[in-house]
Structure formats: structure tokens, C-alpha cells
Amino acid sequence: MKKKYFTKKILHSFIFLFMVFLTPYFVHAQEVHVDFQGNYKGKVINIVREEIQNLFGADYTIQTLQAEILNGPEDGEIVEMKNDFQPLEKGDIFYFNYSVQINGAESYVVTAVSRQGALLLLVGIFVAAVILFGRWQGVRSLIALAASFLGIIFVLIPGILNGWSPLIASSLVASVILFAAIFFTHGFNRESLVAYTGTISAVILTGIFALFAVSITKLSGFAAEEAIYLNFNTGGALNFTSLLLGAFIIGFLGVLDDIAVTQAAIVTELFDSNPEMKRSEVYRRAMRIGQEHVGALVNTLVLAYTGASLPLLLYVSYSTAGILTTINLEVFATEIVRIIVGSIGLILTVPLVTFLAVMYLKNQPKKGGTAKKHHHHHHAH
User: How many alpha carbons fall within 13 Å on the CB side of residue 371?
Assistant: First the structure.
């Protein structure tokens, strides 16, 4: 018995030494031989087989494709690959990951359908519609839109990844985006200046309220799955609460710009229709229109965020947890706070911009001409 125990102990020691000294070698060997080669483009030549498999109670289409590789080291070759990503048809262009297995075998994994052509077509239709409807102002709005995207892609994103505070970076880029959106679209005039000043003031106040809302609800910024991956990829270098606040600010810029420009234009038109109208009366009438506009935009915000979260809402509907437990989840709480913060921003923008417009736009020359001087006509008669 003692001999058997001794033999067993030696065997365990040998296994331990094997694990300690040889496992790293095999892990290193696997790292060397399992090599991700890249993401490349392919074209479906033929669908060899197609079958329906039931996984976890749901049916999935599994295809065996014969595909031509369109770029990369195997450009022009015809290969077979499995596709369990999305059903494809003959002639479809798609993307796939190409890797080499530990035994030298090649593997291909379909990752996405090629959509560039369809997206370019939709962008072309959008640009044509904007230009046909808006004429020169439509062109200016497209230039402003392009400037906004360039600011986000080449300033905001690299800045945050290089260590800028997401909240401060978003606020600075937001001011530049608003400048481009308002002045390039609506011209360099007092009406645009009033809209810009009022919107920036509303953004600052809304940002303070957002900071308060995120603080009391203890949102971490990790509601979305991509935030977790980003945290791993950046080594935990980003402040995700600050990033969430920055996302709030960028997100409600569009509606604040909308209502600010509208209120400034309303005040201008009211003064132009009757230059003798008192400022208090213009303010009251403009606020009446602004209240209706806010109601419509708040509804738009709620519907937009609800539509974006519809799959999640359907998924949670299967949960046995109650409604209070469900809305307490950060993924839902974040959207609720986002809607409330955006709505507060709208409510703050209307009186701010309307007040500034009433104070500074009286007797302003009309765009492209001079204001109507009704009192001169009165004396002429």
C-alpha cells in the first residue's frame, strides 16, 4: 500500500512538473500557429448546402458556401466555408475572418455582408433630397453636417482616446458643431448669433443637470456591451461616467439646435409682421409656439430612444422580474435619464433663446433685404 501511495505521489509530481514547464511551450506553440491573418472580402459563387439547425429552441440557417476570395493573400482562390452568420445568396459580397489553425488548417468565418454600395446609394438619395428641397441652404446644411462628423471622428474620438476628459472634450466639440450647424446653415447674422448663444447657454445648464442626474442614479457608463470591451481594450484608462455625460451632450445637440433656430426665426417673423408690437407680447406669442414645439420634440425623443431599444424591450418582456426591477437595470435607467436630460435641455432652451431674441432681434434687417418700416408707410399716407 505504501509503495502504491509512493508511486501515485511521483506520478502527481511528474504531472505537476509537466504542467509548469511544458504547458507554456505548448501555449506558445499555439500562439505561433493559430494566427489571425485578417478580414477579407469574398463573393458567393455557389451555395453547396443549406440546412436548418435548432439551437437553444431557435432555428438557424447553416450554409456551406463556395466563394471566391476578392482580396488579401489568397486573392482569386475558390474555397468552401461554413456560414452561420446570415443567409447569403449567389452573387452576394461579404466579409470574413481568415485564420490558420494549430495544425496548419485554414479557417474562414463570415462576419458581415458588404453594404457599402447600398449605403452609398442611400447617402446619394439623401444628399439629392436635401439639395432639391433646400437649394443653397441645403448645400450649406450638408457642409455643416460634414463638419460635425469630421469634428467627432478626427477631434473628439482621438482626443478622448489620448486622455482628454470625455466631458470637457464633448463640450468643446459640441460648441464647434453648433457653430457649424447654425452659422453655416442659417448664415452669419444676429438671428444665428442669438440661436447659438442661447443654445450654448442651454447646453451648459443641461450639462450641469446631466451631471446631477447621473450622480444621483449612480450610472457607471457600462450599460452597453461595447463599453465593457472598450474598457478592456484601453486598459481601464477611460472614465466611463464622464464618457456617458459627453454622449448625452452630443446626443441632444440636434434637437437643441432645432428649437433654438426655430425660436429665433419666430421672433424675427413676429417683429417683421408688426414692428410696433411690444417685446412682452412677442415673447408671449413666441413662447406659446415654443411650448407646442417642445411637446412634439419630447415625444420625438421618447419614440426615437424607444425604437432604438425595441429588441431589448422585447427580450426583457420574457423576464419574470417585475417592472420596477427591470427599469432599475442600468441599461434601462441610462435611457430614462437620457430622455429626461434631453427634455430638460429643450425646456431650458425655449425661454433662453426667446428672451435673447426678443431683446436683440427687434428692428433687425430681414435676410436678403431690409426690415419693413410700417411706420414710414403710415406717414406717407
Answer: 18
